[in-house]
Every structure is written in C-alpha cells, then in structure tokens.
Amino acid sequence: MNNAICGMMDPHNEPVFGYLPNSPERINLLNELKRQSNVEIEIPLIIAGKEVRTGNVGKVVMPHNHGHVLATYYKAGEKEVAMAIEAAMSVKEEWMTMSWVERSAIFFKIADLLAKKYRYTINAATMLGQSKNAYQAEIDAVCESIDFLRYNTFFASQIYNQQPKSDSAAMNRLEYRPLEGFVFAISPFNFTAIGTNLCTAPALMGNTVVWKPATTSLLSNYYLMKIYEEAGLPGGVINFIPGAGSTIGNVVLGNKHLAGIHFTGGTSTFNSLWKKVGENLDNYVSYPKLVGETGGKDFVMVHPSAEPLEVATALIRGAFEYQGQKCSAASRAYLPKSLWTKIKEHLARMLGEIKVGDVNDLGNFVNAVIDESSFNFIMSYIEKAKNTKDAEIIFGGKGDKTKGYFIEPTIIQAFDPYFITMEEEIFGPVLTIYVYEDDKFEETLKIVDQTSPYALTGAIFAKDRRVLSHMCRALRYSAGNFYYNDKPTGAVVGLQPFGGARKSGTNDKAGGYMNLTRWTSPRTIKETFLPAIDYKYAYMY
Ligand code: NAP
After folding, report:
1. Which of the four, 404, 436, 469, 500, has the lowest number of CB atoms within 10 Å?
2. Which of 190, 280, 376, 496 to mutate to test the pocket of ligand 1 (most atoms within 8 A of CB)?
3. Does residue 77 lie within any of the structural domains?
4. How big is the chain by its Cα radius of gyration, in Å?
5. Is 245 in the pocket of ligand 1 (CB under 6 A)?
6. Domain range spanning residue 236?
7. C-alpha torsion sign, points 523, 529, 534, 538
8. Which pLDDT belongs to residue 8?
9. pLDDT tens-digit map of 45-90
C-alpha cells in the first residue's frame, strides 16, 4: 500500500567537524589521506549501473604534487554518451512513477552515508584531488553535500504539498511531473557539493540524469557516484560520464529528449551551451530548461564607519580561502582612504602568518590552484599588474609550479578603478583593492555596480545602519547574495540560497525550493463530478 503522507524531517545543517590536534576525526582523516595517497584507482564510466571502460584514458593528479597520480579515468566518446542518454530514457518511467517518499529515502541514505561511513573518504578525495585544506573540504564535500540532500528532500515535500483549492463540484490537483526527457548535469571542479546537487536535485524530482563531472574533480565525484549506488539508486537514474566537455556536449545537446541543463561553471561555457540549445530548438520535444550558475567578480565595499580589523579578516578569508577558487570569492575591494593604513597593517600581519603548501599539513591555509592552465591564467593577470602604472602589487605576486601549482596570496592596489583585475574573473588567490577618497563614497558605489558584467556576491561594511540600507538599495542588482558586515563567501544551504543574475547565471538559487521547481513540469488536473448536459448558460433562457 502506498498511502502514507510522510512528514519529511525539518532539516538541520550538518555540524562541521573541527579537526583539532589529536581529535579522533583528525586521526581518521590523516589515515584516509595516507590510504588514498598510496593507491592508484581506476575510474570507469557508470552507465545503467554498469562500469564502462573505453580506449581513451586520462590521469587524475594532485594539484599540489602533480607528479603523483591518484587515478586513471576513462573518457566517454560519442558512443558512450549515446548509451548514457539511452539508459536515462529507459529507466525514466519506472523512476518517475516510484513514490516520491521511496525516492527521498535514497537521498536521505546518501546523506547519512556521507555523514558517517564515507565522511573521511569524500573529504580526503576532495583534499587530494582538488587541493582543499581539511576545513574547506569538510564544509564543502561533507557538510554542504549533506545539506543539499536533506534540505532538497524537505523542499520537495513542500512543493508537492502546494495544491490548488477544490470545491464541492470539482476536485483540482497539481501533479508535479518530472520534465519530459532527461536532464544534463554538468558540474565544476571547485565544489564537490555542487557535483552532488546538480545531479541529485533533478533526480529527486523524478528526472533521470546524464552527469558530466569536471575533469579536475573526478576522484571525489567518482566516490560520490559509488555512494549513490550503495544507497540503492537504481542503475540508469544518474549516469556518470567523464570526458571532454565538447565531445559530450555535442551529442547531448543534439538529442531531441534533452529536457533540461543543470550547469555550474564558467560564463563562456554556459553561453556556448545556451547558443547550441538555441540552434537545436526545432529538434527538441520540449523547450529545455536552462539553469546555470556561472562566474563572479565579487566585491567588498567599505564605508568609513566600518571596523578595519573586521574588514581585513573578511578580505583575507573571502579572497584566499580555497585559493580564491570560489565563484563567490572577494576579488575587488573598495576601501576609504581614512581606513586604508589600518586595514593594510592588519592585512600585512595576517598575510605574514599564512602558510602555503600541501594539504597534508593542516597548518596550511592556502594550497595549490587546480591545474597548469589555471596557474598560467592567474599568473598572466599578476604579470599585467607588474607591467603597468595603473596598479601595483602590494603583497605576494609569486608563483611556482615546479612540484605543485602554488601561487602566493596576492593583493594588487589599482589606481584606476577599471583596471583589468578589478573587472575580470581571475579565479585564483588575487585580490585587487581600490582606495577611494572618503568624499567620493557615492561615486564609488556607482563604480561598484557598473564595473563588472557579473552579479553574484557582494559584501558591504559599515556601522551606520542608514548607510547600510542605502548601500543595499544602491547595489540592488549588483549581487544575488548580499552580505552586511561579512565576507561574501560561505553561503549555507537552507540559510542563504545561492545564485546571482546578470552574467552570473539564471539565479535559480541552489539550496532553495526555487531550484527544485525548475525540474518539474506541473500538470493541472480538474475532475468534474457532474458534467454539464446542456450547452446553454442560464442567462440565455
Ligand atoms: P568550466 O571550465 O566552465 O567547466 C564547468 C564544467 O563544464 C566542467 O565539467 C567542464 O568539463 C564542462 N564543459 C566545458 N566545456 C563544455 C562543453 N562544451 N560542453 C559541455 N560541458 C563542458 O568551469 P570550472 O573551471 O570547472 O569552474 C570555474 C567556474 O565556475 C568559474 O567561472 C566559477 O565562477 C564558476 N562557478 C560558479 C558557481 C556559482 O554558483 N555561480 C559555483 C562554482 C563555480 P571539463 O572539466 O572536462 O572541462
């Protein structure tokens, strides 16, 4: 019998483990790091629940020690992409007609497996494969993944509960159908949790998924896929296909059953996907839903009434945690001249203490950037700052890719508020500061709003409440996640639903119910009890 109205648990956020010296969790994590460092695994494709190996392979390496191979992975070719779509389409009927309570139980179980049995596995894989320190891996791979799974299940129950009114003559209901076709999930390297969310959110709502993970986060993403299987996710519901984005994208976007894209990554990648969808519009069964969270050029705007130590701390954490490779990372800051000396002193002290290096040393705050092309890309911006009169490097500026892709936390002072590093996403440990004259506060607010095409996150600092609310109004469209007196990073599922507009994405708010509604195509059903038997209305007699 399938008649239970199941009350989904009111979700709570997964507690963050501290990894203090000698704590059991630290010992467990260090052991798991050692274990994973001493094996080289194979990462096959997983299609219809079966492992698939192709003749085309690549290597997964540690960004902080790129000579160390962690895994060999197999790349999908056109044939395997077609197989993955076929698998997704063939289990669709069975998956969407399964009771949503049964479906939800699988995602709760994945969350529980991540919280307990595989906490250190997924943490260590994220640390080694994506070069995250223990804390950054814990808040991402473990806690945020679990939060997505638990909150989304709760939001799904709330969505299904949203029903129209009925009356004595007719009963009305909304059936939240999954999309007609399959969903293409494409995840970025920088958050393991985004890999979790992009494929599980549509699946939770009854869709089947072709998942293309980022090539540089394959280790953690493969372990995630194995956990989905262990939790009882039927084969074919999520199909895991590593490989070249262009090869995979071309086949998937050309398929008439493409019903949605759940993407996070760079703006130019999303633009190319959108254009391709536009070219293929005549072929699709339905208009594909396009959900994309993309780049950012996130700001910190400081009023003269702010507290310098709070500002400096937010800048250090906001700009340099995970080497600035967060879409939300603080990458441009506007500081009043009256506070600059004090803020600079605090920055100098903190940067003097920060250690850069391997993830195995938990004392390191900054680790390596993801790969060589990122390293070169970031260093090219640092070079631009070295070779101009419009800017000066005031901290850091050096990089070394001999063993790992290490770049010092770097602060550039720009003398032109439109200097290139104030405008373009660099996606590395580089913060550019513009010091404004205190009496140019209003003009500077306009510059903050108009400098970059993005509008993802932004932070404002002030003590004066009237100033805070004025800044909030003036910067209404400058960021989708807006912070008063805090760094612009660290959004938590359920607490700060995440996403931005302009060139930062479709702002469908990951970690909120809004995202889940995108994976449904509701059908309204009206049932009339006594159908009319006379075509004339009463007024006609
Ligand atoms: P990316 O280079 O755009 O890659 C994202 C994903 O797209 C990867 O899986 C990539 O595969 C794939 N891809 C690339 N070209 C493709 C194509 N033609 N067809 C299909 N898939 C394709 O981004 P990234 O370097 O991984 O991540 C960094 C970017 O993500 C930054 O711009 C950052 O701001 C953004 N981001 C945004 C958010 C947000 O919420 N707004 C969150 C996190 C990251 P390969 O790995 O194989 O190239």
Report:
1. 469
2. 190
3. yes
4. 25
5. yes
6. 24-294+505-525
7. negative
8. 76
9. 999 999 999 999 999 999 999 999 999 999 999 999 999 999 999 9
Q: Is any ligand 1 atom within 6 A of the Cβ of residue 130?
A: no
Alpha helices by DSSP H, 231-299: 245-253, 267-279
- Does 309 lie in the same domain as 286? no
Q: Are residues 290 and 325 in the same domain?
A: no
End-to-end CA distance of the chain: 50
Mutate-to-test residue for ligand 1 from 140, 264, 322, highest number of ligand atoms within 8 A of CB: 264
Our answer on whether the CB atom of 505 is closer than 6 Å to any ligand 1 atom is: yes
Confirm if 340 and 312 have CB atoms less than 8 A apart. Answer: no
pLDDT for 6: 79
Query: Does ligand 1 have an atom closer than 6 angstroms to the CB of 214?
Result: yes
356 and 256 within one domain: no
Quick check: 245 and 214 in contact, CB under 8 A? Answer: no
Whole-model pTM: value is 0.97
- Residue 274 pLDDT > 90: yes
Based on the fold, state whether residues 52 and 127 are members of the same structural domain: yes
Domain assignment present for residue 423? The answer is: yes
Report yes or no on 224 lying in a domain.
Answer: yes
Same-domain status, 283 and 337 = no
The verdict on residue 17 lying in a domain is: no
Residues 335 and 236 in one domain: no
**463 C-alpha to ligand 1 centroid (Å):** 38
Query: How many A from CA of 306 to the centre of ligand 1?
Result: 36
Predicted confidence at residue 2, as pLDDT, reads 66
- Quote the number of domains for the chain: 2
Element (H, E) at 116: none
